[in-house]
Design goal:
The complex is a heterodimer of chains A (311) and B (139).
Chain A lengths: L9 E4 L10 H14 L2 E4 L10 H5 L1 H18 L4 E3 L3 H16 L1 H14 L10 E3 L1 H8 L2 H7 L8 E5 L28 H8 L3 E2 L18 H17 L4 E4 L2 H18 L6 E4 H8 L17 H6 L4
Parallel strand pairs in A: 1-2, 1-3, 3-4, 5-6, 5-7, 7-8
Helix pairs in contact in A: 1-11, 3-4, 3-5, 4-5, 6-8, 7-8, 9-10
Chain B lengths: L3 H9 L7 H22 L13 H10 L9 H16 L6 H26 L9 H5 L4
The chains are: A alpha/beta (311), B mainly alpha (139).
Chain lengths: 311, 139
Amino acid sequence: MSSEKKPYQKVAYYPGCALEGTGHAYNRSTKEVGKALGLELDEVNNWNCCGAMEVKNIDPKIQTYLSSRVMSIAANEMGHDVVMAPCNGCYHNLKKAEYDLKNDADSRQVVDRISSKAGHKTYEAGQVETIHALDWIKDGIGEEALRARIKNSLKGLKVANYYGCMYTRPRHIFPEKDQGEGSESTSQPHFMDDLLAAAGAENVDFPLKTACCGGAHTLSDSDTSTLLVLNILRAAEAAGADVIATECPTCHSGLEMHQVRAESKFGYTSNVKITYFTQLLGMALGLSAKKVGMHENISDSMALLKQKGIA
Amino acid sequence: MKSLDEIGAVLQQSGDSGSPAAVAADYLQAGEDTVSHWTIGRGFDPTDETREGFRLLALHRQGAKGEPSFNACRETCRELVYHYNLVTMEPDNPDIARRLEMMRLVAMHLYLFIRGKMEVSGLGEFCCASRPLRTGTEQ
């Protein structure tokens, strides 16, 4: 960890809408992993939707405002200088809002006007640093300290780490990435690989780790979404993976639902399991499967985890 | 240049016939043809230039001009090139069948992504997350 990095021992937590719905297991496992690692999460008071994706398509500046409100509450009402968002969509949107407010006077004007009407302080660029759950654990704990706390190694578990498309794109809203040793890469992200390797897992070479999961197609063209997911599942299996680890609730839901649909629509059965990386880390830290919400996944990995001696 | 349906048919085949180099060349060509359809759809003549020795990378760059959302398949193009190199530089590697299969799946992903993007473009925006970045509606 570089000396400029913050320790992230106590951060504002912005779960976002998905983690209260389909991504509940991600919410649960993130909180449990935080507790197990001694990292404190302080949930943002009265948080709102980040504006993804619907609002952004109607008026992107309203999305900038919505994301800025979350950061304003964290900074101005709760005194935080770091906001952790585990959802790729929320993370991306807060980063984008930060970029807009730093670089676009019109965005600042709109955000100031709406913030005044809403009765809260206008968020100023630079008041908080937005991080992902991967940054939180990677920089808040680090691999060495994580390795020392592992009670139940993931040894023998072959993992394809799937980051999705929004964690690294577009590059310009993630100025901290691609900064050399210790920083995340936008072309070959590795933070999830690093953490799961520290927990004992064997990461496989997975060429589609940042490829589109077809999430945007889900409603307009479900077959294309299913085929894209099917291809990801097949690639993970061809790479020898037992499990695809995810770090985004939308990708995770898409992989799970289209895995089921791939079987019913195209007759393709895949055996690879899908879990959140926080669920795997939690179990490696000695938490029970129930505590990390394994029973909430559609993709049932319990038999596999028992076979590997993890559950 | 093959039609999108013909490209799909090539990529449905497992690639267990022919030399590894020839199969890899077919998959790379499928990638080039797929991206060429995208560039033609956007009103450009597909470039014959190369970047880092590969036409596919030059085509991707051309396809992303003024269309930042197309960068969502940049790494897929680079993975395809990587697998082409992997297969052609070590055609006798004992893992060659798996490498070819992985290359096929990477090419298939590029094909599905671009075909879907082209199909949906008539109905609105494909990648809603990046729409404002692409269209400049923030300005």
